[in-house]
Design goal:
The chain is of the alpha/beta class. Helices cover 24% and strands 31% of the residues. Strands 8, 11, 12, 13, 15, 16 and 17 form a 7-stranded antiparallel beta sheet that branches. Strands 25, 28, 29, 30, 32, 33 and 34 form a 7-stranded antiparallel beta sheet that branches. A 5-stranded parallel beta sheet has the order 3-2-1-6-7, with helices on both faces. Helix 10 links the parallel strand 23 and strand 24. The longest helix has 23 residues. The protein is globular.
């Protein structure tokens, strides 16, 4: 058996358990190789791992012993050169070829080229491919912003695009509860990709070159009937994976509240096309060895010079958030009027699309200064303000609020604001509350941009924490607990815990760890540490802390990101991984909570526990992976420093980002990573 993929090594072990005499496994990178070898070592007592061989080389560098003499170019991509070639030699051709090289884009992990090489060089005639074929299922969709809180924000749709295919949880998006997020057709089969036939055609083929293939191998037309009236701007797609003998699985079930398995769905954005109910649409489907595309014949009529991150649309569609902010802003302005304020000036920091600024203007503010660091978002905000008739009241500034002032500069430069503001409105919170610099922005504004009696919206926040288990243990009877070391990240990550309740478990009642009164800006700017204690309610393994916040907008209005309550779509919860410990029901878990004004973190208090007694033996991270991570971080810092100092360097990097994002296979970059790089440079 030859396996392509599966860094966890679950497929090779399943093959041996099913009776395979020999299994060779080719993985996509060295970290996955380490993971696979670790999994084999852990499971050596439950499966005969001597039958499994991990090939630490790319598929194009592997060959069968005796069939091809290694040439000078054969060692390409292999550290150690010719001396390491023994690591990529198979003893014989494979009878069965198994792969799980799928991502949300279907072909973005170079599945087809890998199968062609594996079948031509490494497989026997009549090789059985698992899975045998893929059906690309699709659906016409409207994914647009129209009216939000009574304002026209449709201009944002021109910034909704993606260099490749956007990853999306369709079940989540269709549950947004808005008229402009909906399916416009029933699911239909867009394309069939026969993996078995492709491998059969390449077995024993001596040469596989790019010149052998047209630009598009398949170009077909599908007539799709709409089931709803709307404006189509996207085609959603996913996979039905066929294994033969009637066995199949799908990466999306329309009736499910969440996505199926590890592969999410994809969305291909198109130019907007108004459609009536029961109208027929001619949709062109194209694919080659690397990507799948859709086209409805409409010409591009909007420039794609920038994009807005998908989380921003979630935020705008969160009516719970928007309504709470509107009530708090209105209460504040009415209170100011009641106390005799004649002219009320509002400062909106992190203004984004301008929604909060327009809420303030509609509530009666005389002047609103909207401050936004992103040039693209500033353009969007200005457009929204003009389109909604607030150009005379709202001034957008592309500034960093921490560097603004109300005094004339020594060189005669006019002040950023004519006078200090009476109200500060801001929504600059990440899943961990202070990760976007909220404490610094408020402190700077209170020092330089606000009147002494200025009101803050929001006014305070409380942070809650709970120890959890969010990890892998046994899969198909195999032990993968040691692989949890690869879950580590240096900071907390955002996780929507309420949508994956079956994947984590809380071990104690939530405890309040920090309380921030935003009026106490001097105190908030001092790093803090606090000791807390959790009473463990059940036995198990703790490997992370989940934390969230309650945001007090004013005396009457509050927003919460509590995963145990019905929060909106704006924020996730923050999860910080720690070294695993065993928890015993009824015991106490002492924890140190701390913040450095930019982020909150947690660690188990080793002065009060015996780490040797409670450790599971799984380290916090893999040392070699950590070294690689630190190297990449250093390279990223060098790139950021270079482009910040030299605009021409930024242009070069941005141009390359677009090229990589549009055609990742040309540069050997996985499609998802290429898209992240591109959108980061364009946002």
């Amino acid at each position: 058996v030859l396996v392509l993929g599966s860094g966890s090594c679950v497929l090779p072990m399943m093959a041996v358990k099913a009776g395979a005499g020999r299994v060779s496994c080719i993985l996509q990178n060295k970290t996955l190789c380490k993971m696979a070898k670790l999994a084999l070592d852990v499971n050596k007592d439950s499966v005969d791992t001597s039958k499994i061989r991990i090939l630490d080389a790319p598929v194009e560098s592997c060959f069968v012993q005796g069939e091809e003499e290694p040439g000078e170019g054969r060692s390409k991509g292999i550290e150690g050169g010719a001396a390491a070639l023994v690591e990529c030699v198979l003893s014989e051709r494979a009878d069965i070829l198994v792969t799980d090289w799928f991502d949300h884009t279907v072909l973005g992990l170079n599945l087809i080229p890998a199968l062609e090489l594996a079948s031509s060089r490494l497989s026997k005639p009549g090789v059985r491919v698992i899975p045998q074929s893929l059906t690309v299922k699709s659906m016409l969709m409207e994914l647009r912003i129209s009216s939000v809180s009574g304002f026209d924000l449709s201009y944002l749709n021109s910034y909704r695009w993606h260099p490749s295919h956007d990853k999306m949880d369709l079940s989540r998006e269709l549950s947004q509860g808005t008229e402009s997020y909906k399916k416009l057709s029933d699911p239909f089969a867009a394309a069939e990709i026969d993996l078995q036939a492709r491998c059969d055609a390449f077995v024993n083929r001596s040469h596989v070159g790019e010149e052998d293939f047209p630009e598009w191998e398949y170009e077909g037309s599908v007539k799709v009937d709409t089931c709803e009236e709307g404006t189509m701007n996207a085609v959603a797609f996913w996979m039905d994976i066929h294994f033969g003998q009637g066995v199949r699985c799908s990466t999306w079930d329309e009736g499910s509240a969440t996505s199926n398995g590890s592969t999410e769905q994809a969305v291909h954005y198109l130019e907007e096309l108004p459609l009536a109910k029961d109208e027929s649409v001619d949709l062109t489907v194209l694919y080659n060895r690397f990507q799948l595309l859709f086209d409805c014949g409409s010409l591009q009529n909007k420039p794609r010079h920038a994009c807005i991150p998908s989380w921003h649309y979630d935020m705008l569609l969160d009516s719970q958030r928007n309504d709470a902010y509107e009530r708090a802003i209105r209460n504040c302005i009415e209170s100011k009027r009641a106390f005799g304020e004649k002219e009320i000036a509002v400062l909106d920091v992190g203004a984004g699309s301008g929604l909060l600024s327009m809420l303030a203007a509609r509530a009666g503010a005389d002047k609103v200064t909207a401050v936004e660091m992103s040039q693209h978002m500033c353009d969007v905000g200005e457009e929204a303000v003009v389109m909604n008739g607030y150009a005379e009241k709202i001034l957008f500034l592309n500034r960093d609020a921490r560097r603004m002032d109300v005094v004339r500069k020594p060189d005669g430069t006019p002040p950023d604001m004519e006078r200090k503001a009476d109200i500060l409105v801001y929504e600059v919170f990440d899943s961990g509350l202070i990760g976007e610099g909220a404490l610094h922005l408020v402190a700077s504004a209170r020092q330089k941009l606000l009147n002494p009696n200025a009101v803050l919206v929001p006014c305070s926040a409380r942070v809650f924490c709970v120890p959890i288990s969010i990890r892998k243990d046994f899969v198909k009877g195999f032990d993968f607990q040691q692989l949890n070391r690869y879950s580590w990240r240096p900071d907390y990550v955002g996780v929507e815990l309420e949508s994956c309740r079956g994947e984590w478990k809380a071990f104690a009642k939530p405890v309040e760890v920090f309380s921030f009164d935003f009026y106490e800006s001097e105190a908030n700017m001092m790093p803090a540490m606090k000791q807390v204690e959790f009473e463990v309610e059940s036995d198990g393994i703790i490997n992370a802390f989940a934390f969230w916040f309650d945001l007090q907008l004013d005396e009457e209005n509050e927003l919460s990101t509590n995963p145990f309550s019905g929060k909106g779509k704006t924020w996730q919860q923050a999860v910080q991984h720690v070294e695993e410990v065993r928890a015993v029901k009824g015991s106490k878990l002492p924890v140190i909570a701390k913040h450095d004004t930019y982020g909150i973190g947690f660690e188990i208090d080793d002065t009060k526990v015996d780490r040797g007694e409670i450790s599971t033996g799984v380290p916090l991270w893999d040392p070699s992976w950590k070294v690689s991570y630190d190297h990449v971080k250093q390279w990223n810092e060098q790139i950021v420093s270079s482009i910040a100092q030299d605009p021409s360097e930024y242009r070069k990097v941005a141009d390359m980002a677009v090229r990589i994002g549009a055609r990742p296979s040309d540069y050997g970059v996985p499609s998802e990573e290429a898209a992240k790089f591109c959108t980061r440079m364009m946002s």
